[in-house]
UniProtKB/TrEMBL annotation:
Involved pathway(s): Carbohydrate biosynthesis
Keyword Repeat: no
Record keywords, A-Z: Isomerase
One cellular component (GO) term of this entry: cytosol
Naturally occurring in which organism (per UniProt): Dorcoceras hygrometricum
Name recorded for this polypeptide: Triosephosphate isomerase, chloroplastic
Listed GO biological process terms: gluconeogenesis; glyceraldehyde-3-phosphate biosynthetic process; glycerol catabolic process; glycolytic process
GO molecular function, one term: triose-phosphate isomerase activity
Isomerase is among the record's keywords: yes
Family note: Belongs to the triosephosphate isomerase family.
Summary of subunit composition and partner proteins: Homodimer.
Length: 249
């Protein structure tokens, strides 16, 4: 891990029921968690209020998506104002499932990021390459293009955490090696230094996501430019998520 405060996010995706999430919340409330870590969980929208009202204040809440602007006649969407109304301070944007399953593009994602930041909500900005892009030697090109779309849109970098999530590692059990992740994280930091500023490059947390679990987190956390994790599957298991949070090194 680098010098910034370690950041661990749990992306619950489209999982859970009132009962299963109540059990997860109680497991998290009773877990011993390192104090020097920012912890954020992203429940499905419909359970945010339940989780906010039962989860320890030690853990912040993120939404998994948001609309591009103020609410209104946008059926099925959730506005940043509504997210804030539930005391949610973060939103996950650019997740590979939204890019590749739902079809969100860089420009649309950039618009959402700009609006969220202007409304003072933090953004977990996800980037990452597909397997065929990695195999074609395009990992950096793809990540830099996605990063540039965020950089072109956002008003400031104070409330952005970048999540590098190689798509081939998400939900597949195929984690990137610590060296593979470190290589991209270092390149992202270098890109920020050259294209935004040295200050933003040194202060922005770059977290890794893709099949992180209780068994592989410690080795990944040792890497110089890995400042935390975005965790999917393993964040649905309280004790294992606690192990990942406590892997800060
Ligand atoms: C994610 O979706 O952000 C993720 C990293 O999922 P998983 O940990 O299940 O690979």
């Amino acid at each position: 891990a680098g010098s910034g405060k370690f950041f661990v996010g749990g992306n619950w995706k489209c999982n859970g029921t009132k009962d299963s999430l109540s059990k997860l919340v109680s497991d998290l409330n009773s877990a011993a968690l390192e104090s020097d870590v920012d912890i954020v969980v992203a429940p499905p929208f419909v359970y945010i209020d339940q989780v906010k009202n039962s989860l320890s204040d030690r853990i912040e809440i993120a939404a998994q998506n948001c609309w591009t602007g103020k609410g209104g006649a946008f059926t099925g969407e959730i506005s940043v104002e509504q997210i804030k109304d539930l005391d949610c301070n973060w939103v996950v944007l650019g997740h590979s499932e939204r890019r590749h399953i739902i079809g969100e593009d860089d420009q649309f994602i950039g618009k959402k990021a700009a609006y969220a930041l202007n409304q003072n909500i933090g953004v977990i900005a996800c980037i990452g390459e597909l397997l065929e892009e990695r195999e074609a030697g395009k990992t950096f090109d793809v990540c830099f293009q996605q990063l540039k779309a965020f950089a072109d849109a956002v008003p400031s970098w104070d409330k952005i955490v970048i999540a590098y999530e190689p798509v081939w590692a998400i939900g597949t059990g195929k984690v990137a090696t610590p060296e593979q992740a470190q290589e991209v994280h270092a390149a992202v930091r270098d890109w920020l230094s050259k294209n935004v500023s040295a200050d933003v490059a040194s202060k922005t947390r770059i977290i890794y996501g893709g099949s992180v679990n209780g068994g592989n987190c410690a080795e990944l956390a040792k890497q110089e430019d890995i400042d935390g994790f975005l965790v999917g599957g393993a964040s649905l298991k309280g004790p294992e998520f606690a192990t990942i949070i406590n892997s800060v090194s």
